[in-house]
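To whoever is on call:

I kicked off a structure prediction for a single chain this morning and the downstream step that reads the tokens threw a length-mismatch warning. I double-checked the sequence; it's 476 residues and nothing unusual in it as far as I can see. Pasting both halves so you can look.
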Amino acid sequence: MARPTDRPSLRHHRAHPDVIRHSSRRVGGEFRGLAWLVRHPLFALVPAALILAAVLVGALPTVIAVGAVALVVVVWGRLHPPSFDRLAAPVLRATWRRWTTYRGRRWATLLADCGLAQTNHHTGHIDAPRVLRVRSATPSIDTLRVRLTRGQDLTLWAGRTEPLADALRAHRVAVARHRPGVLTVVVEREQPFRFPIPAPAIPSTAEAVDLAALPIGEDEYGHPFTLGVPGRHVVVAGASGSGMGSLIWSPLRAMGPAIRDGLARVHVIDLKGGAETRRGAPLFHRHAITAAEAIALLTDVRDEMKARQQHMADQGLRRLDVSIETPLDLVVIDEMAMLTAYGERADVREALRLLAEILTQGRACLTSVMGYVQEPTKDVVDVRELFTTRICLGVTAASHVDMVLGDGARERGALADEIPGDEAHAGIGYVIDQRSRLPIRFRAALVTDDEIDELVARCAPPAPPELRAIDGEEAA
């Protein structure tokens, strides 16, 4: 008697001849090697060029030429480090790290250990995401483009950044989506800022000032860190000792001649009795150190903004350009919580109303606000969402990072709560890059008291005639 369990299986295979068993064999090594050479053409072209040169001109001249090139590179790096570090070092460093860290079995094994690669059960081959590109702008930062394997997404990588950082012996790893199927992976190998950044030089003339890109420090890639003021509102959050003073005085030094020539007017509110800002008082158009003075200052700025709106409506203008007639009005509020949360209830309500009006309507009228706060919670800064540029220095709680920089900023690598609170790390913080949406670490320049005095001496605007007359009478 036939066994019913066998025959149906045999009939099934005969009836369906297109059923194919999966093979456990890998693609031939020669074809895998050919595909690898297509992806890395220089690996074949450079040796081929050297062999061709040896055949055409001789082995000894070729060796001498290669040695001369190596000697030129070494001498260049020792003789002029700035140009070498800008032009040659990033290419050499990226090439070296790609070959030693981000390719081959070592890279695949590392990802497998971190749960970011899978082993094929049929072949034993590790199916790992492939690195498409490596950039190494500075010794401390590598930026990778990684092609994901099927079934992976940004969420998976974002949840494995800490194990990946430990496996790479890196300080931190951040990830962001570059395009479908490709991630940007930032590997920070070490702390990028070992020394304070010198104060920005005061431009010689107002024409040399770019208010849309004031240099106030350096980012972790070694590029100038700039801050735009016209058409923007800036909020800076940082705990006590995090270096907020650097972000007050560095922009003022960078725009100094514009203040002197009347192209920018600085209105300062410092409800700590003027302790932080009194030294630069001659620079300011107005200086408020009490709640009543602060509300009067905000009222005047709001009224000037309304007058400009009327002028724009009469002239059919959509925006104003910086000029003597319409200077940039910059409102600087040190320790904003004293104005928006901790003062008298009536004063707080009025200050919030005026601030909301300025923040929502001041962009086209050349009216900008820069606020500085230690605790960025909604209860303390009710108008927090109206600031278009947000900067996070060292803070005391992990939740503060997302409050300032937006949801998920800490998960993407903005570890501002882990910045030490000592003087050696003052001025270090994070800002979100508007193109990649990745957090970028920066360090603001250190401005000393002597450099504030230099700014006042060189860039304080002349006093109005009525004030000069009063000063003259007091002197007499």
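Update from on-call: the warning came from a stale cache, not from the record. Cleared it. Sanity check on the structure: The chain has 17 helices and 16 strands.
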